[in-house]
Design the sequence.
């Protein structure tokens, strides 16, 4: 989707109002049309279409909600409705003008329309027939700045890339192909990408990543991204870590429940999220030194697969008793978190589709997070989550949860029993950190079985806009 500042009037237009009186500011309406709009408002319609030759005029009425973040999300949802109206009427271009008191309303509506417009059609032979008709959104000059529109375009481009990575099947997106896709993004956006192959991973003794890879015929990768601006606000880097399990069968602890493997190509949602964030950061030229790490493999029950009861020596030197091979994400994340220590980071955040417990706790409505970073950092992330409507719920990290992963024969074990699963996973990861750190479990939100509002079916990239919002405001 192309989003631009309007240079000349488009035939088809949308106007955003926050009360009915603002309809007086809509230009080029005759008396009959104004009467029609007034009658529609009286009938409590909030999306009104006026057929004006040679184009259509859409009026979006969105009254304020109880909070600013709820109002903002209502505008995004109105954008999805606008996209649907444009597609029904086979419109290729629409201009948006804001007449409301919400200064960024046009941007929010455009964001919602562009987000809803995402389709993964690479493997559809009928792609031309089902593609969106709307291809371009123009925003009136008095409704947004060029910089705001440019940043929105970059955000949408990154959002699409993250979703596409998640939607790609594993017979295309192996660990090596994931690294190749990230390399391409780095070349296009302007950040450095280094890919460690299996031989280098073996040399580094990344035991967690290698253990998960043992059942696969395809090699693992460890991808390092780095964006270094000329004048960074942070003296020490921020490190992003994303789980890159490109497909998860559960290994020898084969996933037991019906349909549980249907969406396991999405188990690299964390890798997609941090990679796309790096793409956006570099294109926006944010003044931050940021490094991102993606350990990647598939998890299969091959002849050499690691088994329940094995003891694995991790990259850090710690030993882990494996009691469930389906608790694999924490094994490779642990190696990446230990790798991050070499940068003496200011902050490390990891994103992972890690536990069914997180999905059970919050469903598809928010992200479970936890960690030892300061309250100011947590509050900043929470505020970003509300602004982007990608909300966070903090879970505690009490010592008792750490007791659940104590092992009799190794330093720790990789599962903590039937209760508190999201937290015991976090406590496992905590063992491999010695810096300010936050863990985000996106298991419940990374993949949608059906479209809802401005979020399409498939990969959602839920959390990417929140992370980008946090980084854009970092240090301010």
Sequence:
């Amino acid at each position: 989707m192309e989003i631009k500042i309007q240079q000349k009037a488009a035939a088809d237009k949308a106007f955003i109002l926050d009360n009915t009186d603002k309809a007086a500011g809509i230009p080029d309406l005759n008396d009959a049309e104004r009467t029609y709009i007034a009658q529609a408002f009286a009938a409590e319609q909030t999306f009104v279409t006026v057929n004006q030759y040679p184009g259509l005029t859409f009026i979006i009425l969105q009254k304020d909600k109880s909070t600013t973040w709820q109002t903002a999300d209502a505008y995004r949802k109105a954008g999805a409705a606008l996209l649907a109206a444009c597609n029904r009427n086979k419109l290729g271009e629409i201009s948006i003008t804001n007449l409301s008191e919400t200064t960024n309303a046009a941007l929010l509506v455009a964001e919602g329309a562009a987000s809803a417009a995402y389709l993964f059609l690479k493997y559809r032979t009928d792609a031309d027939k089902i593609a969106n008709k709307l291809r371009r959104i123009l925003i009136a000059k008095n409704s947004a700045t060029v910089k705001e529109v440019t940043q929105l375009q970059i955000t949408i481009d990154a959002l699409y890339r993250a979703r596409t990575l998640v939607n790609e099947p594993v017979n295309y997106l192996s660990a090596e192909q994931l690294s190749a896709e990230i390399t391409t993004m780095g070349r296009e956006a302007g950040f450095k990408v280094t890919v460690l192959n299996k031989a280098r991973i073996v040399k580094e003794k990344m035991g967690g990543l290698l253990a998960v890879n043992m059942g696969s015929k395809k090699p693992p990768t460890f991808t390092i991204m780095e964006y270094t601006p000329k004048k960074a606000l942070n003296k020490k880097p921020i490190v992003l870590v994303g789980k890159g399990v490109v497909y998860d069968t559960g290994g020898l602890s084969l996933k037991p429940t019906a349909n549980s493997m249907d969406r396991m190509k999405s188990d690299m949602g964390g890798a997609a999220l941090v990679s796309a964030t790096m793409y956006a950061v570099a294109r926006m030229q944010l003044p931050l030194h940021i490094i991102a790490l993606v350990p990647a493999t598939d998890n299969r029950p091959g002849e050499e697969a690691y088994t329940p009861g094995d003891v694995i020596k991790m990259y850090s030197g710690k030993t882990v008793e494996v009691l469930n091979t389906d608790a694999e994400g924490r094994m490779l994340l642990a190696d990446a978190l230990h790798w991050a220590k070499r940068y003496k980071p200011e902050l490390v955040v990891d994103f992972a589709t890690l536990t069914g417990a997180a999905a059970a706790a919050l469903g598809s409505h928010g992200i479970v997070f936890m960690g030892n970073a300061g309250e100011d950092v947590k509050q900043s992330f929470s505020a970003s989550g509300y602004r982007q409507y990608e909300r966070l719920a903090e879970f505690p990290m009490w010592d008792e949860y750490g007791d659940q992963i104590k092992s009799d024969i190794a330093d720790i074990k990789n599962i903590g029993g039937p209760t508190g699963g999201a937290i015991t996973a976090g406590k496992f990861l905590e063992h491999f950190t010695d810096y300010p750190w936050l863990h985000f479990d996106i298991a419940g939100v990374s993949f949608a079985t059906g479209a809802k509002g401005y979020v399409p079916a498939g990969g959602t990239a839920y959390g990417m806009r929140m992370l980008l919002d946090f980084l854009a405001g970092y240090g301010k």
